Model the fold of this input.
Amino acid sequence: MLYPLIRKFFFALDAETAHGIGMNGVDFLNAAGFSCLLAKPVTPCPVAVMGLKFPNPVGLAAGLDKNGEHIDALARLGFGFIEIGTVTPRPQEGNPRPRLFRIPEAQGIINRMGFNNAGVDRLLENVRRAEFPKKGGILGVNIGKNATTPMDKAAEDYLLCLDKVYNDASYVAVNISSPNTQNLRELQKDAALDDLLTQLKRRQEVLAEKHGKYVPLALKVAPDLDDGQITAIADALRRHHFDAVIATNTTLSREGVENLPNGKEAGGLSGAPVFAKSTAVQKKLAAALAGELPIIGVGGIMGGADAAEKIRAGASLVQFYSGFIYRGPELVAEAAATLAEVMKRRQG
Done:
């Protein structure tokens, strides 16, 4: 019950300022041994996906902890896995502030952060200090390209990041779907996607041999895809034997928020307004993939029922970010308990 009170304070501040204060607060409570003030006990619900064993299927989406600075504190909130990033080869400031906007009336968030991060080397320093991965916690690392890297050189950025994070990641998420890096979504199109996936899979084989372990690759796609694009992406994922797909990133649509304060801000829209759109894309991907690779469902999960709907739509795991901002850590326990019931009924 603590979080609703804290949220009133945070929502009175600029969104990005509140984010920084909030993450430092989570760190403080963890260091003081008081994470229990925020988090409820989480129902165990072990699942095996991508060859990895997850204690529960509820994960934190990329974007909340871009530099991997808060891994241990976030892990104490009960997440079954944590995804950090998006990280780029070189540090970059991202887009000018303000660049993060709440739409409380619709439980939405618009961001145009632009992959602001301290670079892959700093992220790895933080990962190697964290206890969570050392104790077997599942840590995904989400990789992207620098804004100044030309699109015809984009694969080089992804390969460089993959090389660096491979040995420290449980899985690597390839982000080609952020709307906030110019032309990035062009990489979702036929020839560009085929070339990128080819290079990534080849490098994965080399790195698996070098490090003596196989680290899965997941592709993160946009919700703003038509049926033909969904089919083409599914075909490419199967053809290149990718390990998973994350569906979806934020949307460029403003349906449902266009007349609300901040609703016309540029950037990607997340939270409740993207739920139906992202779930529809996920469902179509699931049909096209026919079970050949798992789906991580993300987009608009604001409660346990939403998480269950993602699973029913074909996801094996779920993630959220905006729901965490609006609901706080109790959403982790609620989603995990709901999914434990869903999976128990399936098995029964």
The first strand starts at residue 47 and ends at 49. The domain at 2-347 is CATH 3.20.20.70 (TIM Barrel). Residues 45 and 340 are 5 Å apart (CA to CA). The chain has one domain: 2-347.
